Amino acid sequence: MSTAQSQSSGERIYDPVAGRVRGFGTTVFAEFTALANAVGAVNLGQGFPNFAAPDFVKDAACAAIAADLNQYARSAGHPRLVQALAQVYSPLFDRPLDPLREIVVTVGATEGIFAAVQALVDPGDEVILIEPFYDSYPAAVTMAGGAPVYVPLRAPAGSRHAGDWTLDLAELTAAITPRTKLLIINTPSNPLGKVYTRAELEAIAAIVHRHNLTVLSDEVYEWMVYPPAEHVRIATLPGMWERTVTLGSAGKTFSVTGWKIGWAIAPPTLAHAILMAHQWIPFAVSTPMQEAVAVALEESDARGYFSWLSRMYRAKRDHLLVVLDDVGLTPMTPDGSYFIIVDTAALDAPVAPGERRDIAICRWLTKEIGVAAIPPSPFYSEPHQYLTDNLARFTFCKTDKMLEEAARRLKKIKTR
After folding, report:
1. Number of helices and strands (H, E) in the chain?
2. Average pLDDT of each block of 10 consecutive residues along the chain (416 residues)?
C-alpha cells in the first residue's frame, strides 16, 4: 500500500459547534451551515444557488407532473433525457453517443461517483485522489473496500490564480502501485476552481495509459468556465474514451440542486458496470425531473443558455474577487466553478490548542464577521492538511443582494 494512503476525510470532520471531531458520514457543509444558521451569518460556504431556476426549466417540471410522468423510469435513464444528453454531448465528445448503452442517469453526480466507484473498485484496490478533492470521493472509495491514495496540487508562494496550482507528475507516478485501479479528477475543480489545461490532461493521460488505469472525470462545473480558460474533456484525448467515465450534473447546470439529476457518460462496458451498481442503489431516478431536464437540454442551445450561465457567474465571481481583495483576504482567481479560495494569512484570529487554523479562521469569520466560509482541510488527507492552514473557501452562487450584504459585513475585517 502506498505511503500516501490515508483514511477518508469523512472520518475526521471537525464540528465547529460542539468543538470536537465527529464520526464517519458528517460533512463540513452540514457543520458550518448549522453554525451560520445559529448566528445569523451570510452563508457563502455551502455551494448551492439561492436564486430561482430558469422559468423554462421549472415550467417543464410542472408540465411533466401534469402529464402523469410519475411512475418508475427506466433504470439507466428516462428515454427522452438520455436522447437529449446524447444530442448535447455527442459533438462535445466528437463521437456519436449511444443513448441506451453509453449514458446512465444517476441521483445527482454524487450517486454517479458512488455507483462508479462501487462498480470499478474491488476490495484492496487503490484509487488516486488529487487534493483538494470533493469530500465524497474518499468515502465512496472506503465503502467499496478500496484504499484512497492522495497526491496534492501545489502552488507557488504568493499565488493569485487557481491555474498556478499544479500536479507534480513525478509525485503522481510514485503514488501508483500494482494495486492502483482508478484515478479521479475534477475539472473545473471544487474547491479550487482550477480548470486543467489540455497539456496537463495529456500528461495525466500518458501516465494513465502507462499504468493501465481507469479515470473518473467529475465535470459537473463544465458550463462554469471563464475565458480565456477552456474546458477540455479528458475522454476526448487519444485513447482515453475507452478508459474514462465522465460525470455531469443538472443541479449545477440548471440551478436545481434539489432535483438530484446527474449522469455518467462512458463506453458500453464501463456504463454497464455502473448500471449494475446503480440498479441496487436507487434503481431509478425521478421521472418528472428527468423529463424536465430533457426539455431544458433540448432548449438550451436555442436560448443561448450555457453561454449566459458562464457570463452570469463570471460577473458574480469578479464582484466577489474585488471585495475579498479589498479586505485583505487575498483571492486566487478561479477559471471555473463557483468557488474562490482565499489566503487568510493576514487575519489575526484566535486558534485554540489542537485546532486547525483554517477551521478556527472560518469559525471566526462566521461568528464575528457574520459571513460563513468553508475550511478546506476536509478536502485533504491528514498528512497534507497543513497545506490549508491559511486558506478558506467562499462561494458566489448567490443573489447579488446576498453578495452585497456579505461585502458589507466583510468590510468589518478592515477595522479589526
Report:
1. 13, 15
2. 37 40 62 94 95 98 98 98 98 98 98 98 98 96 98 93 97 98 98 98 98 98 98 98 98 98 98 98 98 98 98 98 97 98 94 94 96 96 96 98 98 90
Closest CA to 133 of 122, 121, 120, 142: 142
Are 357 and 389 in contact by the 8 Å Cβ rule? The answer is yes
Looking at the chain, the domain(s) classified CATH 3.40.640.10 span: 55-303
Angle between the N-to-C axes of helices 287-303 and 305-326, in degrees from 0 to 180, rounded to the nearest 10: 90
Residue by residue, DSSP assigns 384-398 as: GGGGGTTEEEEE--S
- Residue 309's pLDDT is 98
Q: Which of 75, 46, 18 is nearest to 282 (CA)?
A: 75
Report DSSP state, residue 284. S
Quote the longest CA-to-CA distance of the chain.
60
Only one residue has cell 491528514, namely 382
* CA end-to-end distance (rounded Å), the chain: 48
Q: Which fold has domain 9-52+306-415?
A: Aspartate Aminotransferase, domain 1 (3.90.1150)
> How far is it, in rounded angstroms, from Cα 325 to Cα 31?
27
CATH 3.40.50.300, domain 55-303, yes or no: no
For strands 126-131 and 180-186, give the pairing.
Answer: parallel
> Which helix (H) or strand (E) element contains residue 332?
strand 330-332
Can you give the pLDDT at residue 295? 98
- Give the cell for residue 109: 453526480
